[in-house]
Structure formats: C-alpha cells, structure tokens
C-alpha cells in the first residue's frame, strides 16, 4: 500500500493553480460525463458538496444544474480554491448584469482536507468528487467522512483513476529502473467494497477509457506537471533520477508510438465512475454477496434469467 505525503500534494496543486485550467483537458471531459450521469439520478439537493473542487470545473456545473441549492467547494490546495473563487466571481459579475440566478450566500469555498471536512454530520444531500480520490491513500477513512456529512439517503457520485492509468509511462519507467515513478491506482471492485464497508448502499461502478495523444513523450510529463500531478509517495525521493535515466525513459516511451496510425504518443487514463447512496446495502437474491457483486452462470445469462 502506498502512503501519500499530504503536504507534498497540497504544495504541488497550489503551485499548479496558475496553469491548471489550460492543461486540464481530461478533467473537463470527465466532469462533463459525471454531470451527464446526474440526469439519471432523481434528486433535488438543497446542499451540494464538491470535494477536490480544484479550480471549480465541476462546481460550476453543479451551480448550473441545481441553481437553488447551496453549493460548497472544498479543496486541499488554497491556490486552487482561490482560482475557483475567482471564476465564480467572474461568473456572478456577468450574471448580475443578466439578473443572476445565484446569490453569494449560495456558494462557499472551504480550504480543507477530504479526510476532515469541517461540516456538521448529515448536512449534505449530494456529494460530488471529480478525479480527487486517487490522491487519498486510505479510501476507508475518506468514505467514512463522506458518509458522515451526507444525510440519510444522500448520494455520492465520483470519478477516480483505475490501474491502467498512465500504463505507458509506468512501463517506460519499468524498463529504465526498478523504482516507483508513477502512483498506483485502485481497481473499481476494491473501491466498491470500500463503499459498502463504510455505510454506502447500492454502489454502481463502471470504467471509461480515455487516450490523450502527444507529439513527444515529454508532452505527457509537461501536462502532468501543469495540473500538479506528481509522485505523491512518502518515499518519493527514491524515485528521483538523473538526466541519463530520464532520457532512457523517454526513449522507452517512444516504443508506444509505432502501433498507432496517427504516429502520436498515447497516454491512457482509466477513469472509474461510481455512485452510491448513504444507506445500508440491500442484499437481494441468492447469488448476491456482501461485496455487492452478482454471480450468474453463462447459461443464466444467455437465457436472460435475472438473479435478483
């Protein structure tokens, strides 16, 4: 199990606040998809909490979707939060000229860690989080905190990265040395198990793959730096390298260019989508176990039988 340095994460995202919006192409697209999935959830929240709000990409969507709700944006990095507040003030200024739907009382910006949200228990109707959970090395602890602030029957909807994320970069480094240079990411089944362990019910998980392409491998590294993404392990010092090894890694990364028809360098991101309710898991049917997984035979599947 990797152990993250929270101060290191905070520092890098603080510094990246200036360049984040321009480089956050994937984060915007994933936020769009998360927002679209809320079309399928019948909920009219009075209080929405965006944890890991960054510069407010998803927060803005929540304000637009639920204009009467109180929307709170939480982030570990103060620099990111100031950027989110700046975007909100710009939007509000424009909105006032056009008879804005928002009031200042409806938007709050909170500099805090996902592990210790400064909110009363049962206060939140909808908790959203876009590509933040991969920076939490103790999912049980953070899900416990999410469950605490959600009201009964409240909804958690989130995205995070799965194990295939940055697989090309990880393989390029593995051919260079045996040290950790890329964070590891948790499988969606383990995330679903963690949800149930911490008081969430009816979790729904799926995976969506994205491939960003670049002219050169160094472009992948530049984008990661621009958004503040870095190796966050406590012992990350062991992963520091000289110029020669870095150059070797880039040469290994070049091997991924050949199979692609556009001759671009790929960077794969496995995005895990999940949502669950702040309610006891309901175990239905003889084939459904405590993990929330349903096992059916191939014959059952072909015949259209449902196990629940």
List the main descriptive attributes of the protein structure presented here:
308 residues, disordered C terminus, Rossmann fold, alpha/beta, 7-stranded mixed beta sheet
CATH architectural category of the domain at 6-165 and 184-210 and 271-281: 3-Layer(aba) Sandwich
Structural class of the secondary elements? alpha/beta
- Largest sheet entry: 7 strands, mixed
Shape verdict: globular
Which strand order do you get reading across the main beta sheet? 3-2-1-4-5-7-6
Q: What is the end-to-end distance?
A: 35 Å
Provide mean pLDDT, rounded. Answer: 86
Quick one: CATH superfamily of the domain at 6-165 and 184-210 and 271-281?
Vaccinia Virus protein VP39
Helix content: 25-40%
- The percentage of residues in β strands lies in 15-25%
CATH topology (level 3) name of the domain at 6-165 and 184-210 and 271-281:
Rossmann fold
Detail the topology: elements first, then pairings.
Blueprint: H1 6-23, H2 25-37, E1 47-51, H3 57-65, E2 70-75, H4 78-97, E3 107-111, E4 124-130, H5 139-149, E5 150-161, H6 167-174, H7 188-197, E6 201-214, H8 217-226, H9 243-253, E7 265-277, H10 298-303
Parallel strand pairs: 1-2, 1-4, 2-3, 4-5
Antiparallel strand pairs: 5-7, 6-7
Helix pairs in contact: 1-4, 1-8, 2-3, 6-9
Walkthrough of the structure:
The chain has a domain at 6-165 and 184-210 and 271-281: 3-Layer(aba) Sandwich (Rossmann fold). It is 38% helix and 20% strand. The protein is built from ten helices and seven strands. Residues 96-104, 294-298 and 300-308 have low confidence and may be disordered. Converts the free carboxyl group of a malonyl-thioester to its methyl ester by transfer of a methyl group from S-adenosyl-L-methionine (SAM). It allows to synthesize pimeloyl-ACP via the fatty acid synthetic pathway.
């Amino acid at each position: 199990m990797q152990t993250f340095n929270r101060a290191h994460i905070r520092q890098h995202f603080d510094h990246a606040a200036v360049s984040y919006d321009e480089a956050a192409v994937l984060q915007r697209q994933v936020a769009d998809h998360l927002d679209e999935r809320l079309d399928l959830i019948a909920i009219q929240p009075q209080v929405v909490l965006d944890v890991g709000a960054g510069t407010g990409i998803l927060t803005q969507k929540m304000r637009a979707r639920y204009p009467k709700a109180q929307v709170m944006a939480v982030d570990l990095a103060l620099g990111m939060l100031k950027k989110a507040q700046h975007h909100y003030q710009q939007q509000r200024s424009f909105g006032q000229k056009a008879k804005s739907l928002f009031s200042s009382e409806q938007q709050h910006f909170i500099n805090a860690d996902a592990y210790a949200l400064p909110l009363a228990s049962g206060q939140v109707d909808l908790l959203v989080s876009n590509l933040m959970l991969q920076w939490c090395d103790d999912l049980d602890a953070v899900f416990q905190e999410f469950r605490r602030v959600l009201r009964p029957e409240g909804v958690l909807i989130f995205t995070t990265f799965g194990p295939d994320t940055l697989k090309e970069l990880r393989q390029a480094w593995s051919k260079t040395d045996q040290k950790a240079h890329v964070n590891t990411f948790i499988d969606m089944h383990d995330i679903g198990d963690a949800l149930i362990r911490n008081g969430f019910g009816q979790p729904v998980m799926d995976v969506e793959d994205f491939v960003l392409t670049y002219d050169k491998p160094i472009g992948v590294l530049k984008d990661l730096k621009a958004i503040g993404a870095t190796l966050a392990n406590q012992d990350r010092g062991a992963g520091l390298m000289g110029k020669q090894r870095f150059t070797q890694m880039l040469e290994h990364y070049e091997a991924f260019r050949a199979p692609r028809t556009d001759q671009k360098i790929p960077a794969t991101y496995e995005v895990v989508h999940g949502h669950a309710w702040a309610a006891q898991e309901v175990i239905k049917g003889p084939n459904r176990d405590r993990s929330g997984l349903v096992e059916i035979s191939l014959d059952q599947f072909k015949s259209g039988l449902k196990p629940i």
